[in-house]
Write a structure and sequence with these properties.
Elements lengths: L2 H41 L2 E7 L1 H4 L9 H12 L3 E7 L5 H6 L1 H5 L5 E5 L2 H5 L4 H17 L3 E5 L12 H5 L1 H9 L3 E2 L22 H16 L6
Parallel strand pairs: 1-2, 1-3, 3-4, 4-5
Helix pairs in contact: 7-9
Length: 227
Amino acid sequence: MKVSTLVFICIAVLVLLGGAFAYYITFVVPQESKKTTTTAGEVRTRRIVAFGDSLTYGYNLPITDSYPNQLQEKLNTLGYNYKVINVGVNGDTTANGLARVEEAFSFEPDLVLLEFGANDFLRSQSPELAQQNLDKIIKAFDDKNVKVILLNIEQNPLLPLQNRERFQQIMPDLGKKYGVPVVPSFLDGILLNTELTLEDRLHPNKAGYKKAVDENLWPVLVKQLVK
């Protein structure tokens, strides 16, 4: 083969390689970068931890009827990329909740729906101690920059009035202290309503929880959500 012919072939190969490289840099790399960014955005699912007692757990109901599950269905229907995790335990007091803070943290929540205090009232425990326990729980989340929404519960209207008003003021007071949203009455319009509660007229049934989520929780919660 002549030297001139060999040189021509080499030049042609270099031109083709250069063109291929230019095409890769111009078209392929940007597309791959764009695809990676989109995938990362789609995978990120924020987490809501519902942290409380039997009113969170869903006392005497199928887990699908509990308020965390009904909230999950509402979020899915409206296109919010959130996972709701039920960390409620029947019978828990504020002291029990304080002891379980690390459990709540283990789910790496972006937002916590905090509901405790009804059992403290039911057992005639000190409202001051209940407030101290809730204060510590809220501070633990606040220290780790986890958003909190406080679910205030209308205390058992079937029991004597002693300390009822004091208990019902705990969540609003702590909401002001930490600058966090408060659901004024999570069970407003539900307690004692035989169509919306179980036989005890205190724990919601499925319909009661739906009302609690749609009418009482959602107007406060939606302001904290990212779509």
